[in-house]
Amino acid sequence: MLRIGSEANGAIDRILSRTVKAVVCLLTALVLAGCASSDSEVSGISNPNPPETIYAEADAMMGEREYKDAAKKFEEVDRDHPYSPLARRAIVMSAYARYKAGDYADAISAAERYVTLHPGTKESALAHHIIANSYYDQVKDPKRDQTRTKKALAALNILVTRYPDSRYAEQARNRIRIMKDLLAAKEMTVGRYYLKQQNYLASINRFRTVVVEYQTTAHVEEALLRLTEAYMALGITNEAQTAAAVLGHNFPDSKWYPPAYSLLQGSGLEPKESEGSWISRTWGRITSF
């Protein structure tokens, strides 16, 4: 019995030994496979070059006007070397490259990401410049929807308000004037349509927007004439007289003043300011006329 038991024990030992070896081999294979997979994943994502080299490559692509490739290369710096001193600037440069490539949505997204992560840094003015210009370059004519015009104006205002002395500020101020002129032109187009349709209240609302919000544009002179016409049509003569008075006082040589004056004269009226008029509150009291 003892001899039989010893043989059985030996057989069991041999089976266990083979099993342990098989398990060890299996585990070793799995570990090696995992390491190989991990190495493969890293090599597929990371650029092994140092951030300075990658950034220089991206910069060279910008010089060759390969903007889309440059944007991707700048993004590698930010992605693979996020703690590098170049990573922050790489974000805004990728936005600039996207802008130069005409990929405005991606440019805006990258620039907004920069100002969210790094507000107030030295590249922030450039980031806001990219956002504003991306909207500005998509602006349509006054007869089209002006959503991007309004977004461009808002972005430009942020730029000149936060960074009034930046290298981009003067251009931004000029473009603000252009955006305001476009928006005023749009209001005038719609206002004239309503006036022609004899929808006087709707037309007044449009012309009022020009008089209140876009006083520095050339359209304000015509807007005051059209207000004179609309208010006269409604029989609200005090507002019509005030509109003509403000027009004549502030723009005495305007081509729009004679027809406003003649319109009042045709009803035995003259330009005269009404103290309670919203036009007076907007432009300030006229001391003499």
Describe the structure.
With 289 residues, the chain is mainly alpha-helical. 74% of the residues lie in helices and 0% in strands. The protein is built from 13 helices and no strands. Helix 7 (147-162) runs antiparallel to helix 8, helix 8 (169-196) runs parallel beside helix 10 (219-234) and helix 10 (219-234) packs parallel to helix 12. The longest helix is centred in the first third of the chain and has 44 residues, at 2-45.
Produce the secondary structure layout.
Blueprint: H1 2-45, H2 51-63, H3 67-80, H4 87-100, H5 104-117, H6 124-136, H7 147-162, H8 169-196, H9 200-213, H10 219-234, H11 237-250, H12 257-265, H13 278-283
Helix pairs in contact: 2-3, 3-4, 4-5, 4-6, 5-6, 6-7, 7-8, 8-9, 8-10, 9-10, 10-11, 10-12, 11-12
Task: Give descriptors for this structure.
mainly alpha, Serine Threonine Protein Phosphatase 5, Tetratricopeptide repeat, elongated, 289 residues, disordered N terminus
Structural class: mainly alpha
What is the CATH superfamily label of the domain at 188-283?
Answer: Tetratricopeptide repeat domain
CATH architecture of the domain at 188-283: Alpha Horseshoe
The helix-strand sequence is HHHHHHHHHHHHH
Helix content: over 70%
Strand tally: 0
- Please work out how many helical segments DSSP would assign: 13
Radius of gyration: 36 Å
Mean of residue pLDDT values: 85
Which strand-content bin applies to the residues?
A: under 5%
Morphology call: elongated
**Highest CATH level, the class of the domain at 188-283:** Mainly Alpha
Which regions are unreliable across 5 or more consecutive residues at pLDDT < 50? 1-16, 19-45
Q: Classify the fold: give the CATH topology of the domain at 188-283.
A: Serine Threonine Protein Phosphatase 5, Tetratricopeptide repeat
What is the end-to-end distance? 134 Å
**What's the story with the biggest beta sheet?**
none
